Amino acid sequence: MKKLTSVLTALLLSLLITPVAAQERILSYHSDIDIAADASMEVTETIRVRAEGNNIRRGIYREFPTRYRDRLGNRYRVGFEVLEVTRDGEPEIWQATRRANGVRVDFGGDDFLAVPAEYEYSIRYRTNRQLGYYDDHDELYWNVTGNGWDFAIEQASATVTLPQAVASGELAVEAYTGVSGDQGQAYEAETTAGSASVQTTQALPPQNGLTLVFSWPKGVVAEPTSWQRFQYLLVDNRGLLLALLTLIASIAYLFSSWVRVGRDPEAGVVFPRYEPPAGYSPASLRYIKRMSYDHTTLTAAIVNLAVKGYLTINQSGKEYTLSKTDSTQPLAAGEQALLTRLFRSGDSLKLEQENHSEVSRAISVHKKSLAADYRNKYFVSNARTLLPPIAGIVIMFLVVLLIGGITPLSVIAFVVNIPLLLLFFWLMHAPTEAGRKLLDRVDGFKLYLEVAEKDELNLRHPPQLTPALFERYMPFAIALGVEQAWAEKFSRVFASLQQERGTPYHPAWYYGSFNATRMGEFSTAVSGGFSSAISSASHPPGSGSGAGGGGFSGGGGGGGGGGGR
Question: pTM (2 decimals)?
Fold first, then answer.
C-alpha cells in the first residue's frame, strides 16, 4: 500500500511541476542583416525553438511591423517581401497575412509537429527604407528580435554587413536589451571591416528583446533625394495626396474663374475733378469703390448727415454722442434709412457697448440699403463661383476622414484652402462697366481732394478754399481715405480767417476738441476715433478676447514578435 501511495504522489508532483527542460522557448535567435548599396536590406533570421506541443503545435509565426508614424504624425511604410522560409534546412510552407500595422508570417501548414523536439526555422526577407540619414553619419536602428515574443529567448545575436569594406575605426555599434523602452546593457558587441556583431550575455524573458544601433560614414549607401522623400510621403499618406490634389484643383479653378469673371475692367482716363459724382453720398462711393461695407462707410455717412444739419456729433474724450436736429437738405440713397434707424429710440444715441444692438441694427439697415441700390449695378461679387470648390473641399475631407487618412500635413493642406477661398472671395469682386466709369470719376475727385495746397496752381480754376467747401467735402475725403490731406489743405485758410475775425473757426455740427491750425489732427480724430467708437459700440460686451544613448529596446525598425501556432 505504501508503495502504491509513493507512486501516485510522484505522478502528481510530475504533473504540477514542469521541468525547465520541457518549457517551450527559443534556444537561439540569430539575424544576418546585409545592407545593399541602394539602401535596401536582405535579412535572414534563424530561430531555433524547443517545441512541447503547447503553443508550438504546427509551427511558429513572425510578426513584422511595416507601418509607422514619423515625428510629424505622418504615415511611414517600409517594404517587406518574404524570399524564403525553411525548417531544419528544408523549404517550409508559409503564409503572409496583412495586419493593422504590418505583416504576420505563419511558418508551417496544418499538420502537427512531432513533439517534444527542437526545430530550426529560417526566414529570409527583403525590406527597405529602414536606414537613418544624418549630417555626419548614416545608421541602422534595428530591433533584432522584436519585443512581442511569447517565449523566452536564451540567446540572441545579429551581424550587420555593409555593401563595402569600411575601417573598423569608422564604425560604431551599441545595443539595448529588455522590454520596450528599456536601455539594458546585457550584450557584447564588436566591429570589423565593414560589419558589426552583437549578442546577448543573458537570456531574454518573454516580451523582452534585443535592439542594435549601427552607424557608419556617409556615402557608403545611397541616400534618397528630396524628390524621392516627397514621393514616399505622398504614397504613404493617401490623405495628404488627396488634400494636395484638392488644393491644386481649387487654385486652378479659382484662378480660371477669376480670369473669366473676376478681373476688373480697364480704367479710363483719370483727371482731377472738383466735384463728386452727382447723386451719390460719400458712403455710397466708398461702398462702390471697396465693393464692401466697413465702419468707415458708416462714419462717412454720419459725418455727411451732420454736415447737412440732421445731427450733431458730441465728443467727450473717447466717447461720442449723436443728437438729432432738423434739416431740409436732400438725402442720398441709404441716408434716410440710416437716419431713421439711428434715432428710432430717441433724439440722441451714445456710441457705447450698452447701445450695441441699436448701432448694429443701424449698420445692418444702412448696408442693406446700399446693397439694394448699388450692388450688381456697379459691382458684382461672383460669390457663386466659390460654391464648387467649397463643395469639393468638404467632400474630399470627408473621403480622407473615411479612409483614415487624416494626418497633420493633410489637415494643413485642407486648412490652406480657407485663406485661399477668402482671398478669391475678395478677388472675385469686380466692377461692372457702369461701375468702372463711375470709379474713374471718383478717382478724379480723389485726386483733387488729396492734392497739396501748393500744387493747386497746377490745376485749372480750382474752387476757392472756404469753410463751407471744407465741410461739404469732408465726408467724401473720409470715405476715400484722404481726410488728412484734405484737412491740411485748409490749415492756413482757417488760421488766416481767425486772424481776420478774431475767433477760431469751428464746425457747427461738431462739439469737442478742435484746433483750426491743426486740421490734420481734427480729421484724424473725427475719422479714426469716431470709427473706433462705432466699432466698439457695434459689438456686444465680451465678444473679443484678450545616436549616443538615445535609443532603447524595442525602438527603430524591424521588431514585432511572434509565437507558436
Answer: 0.66
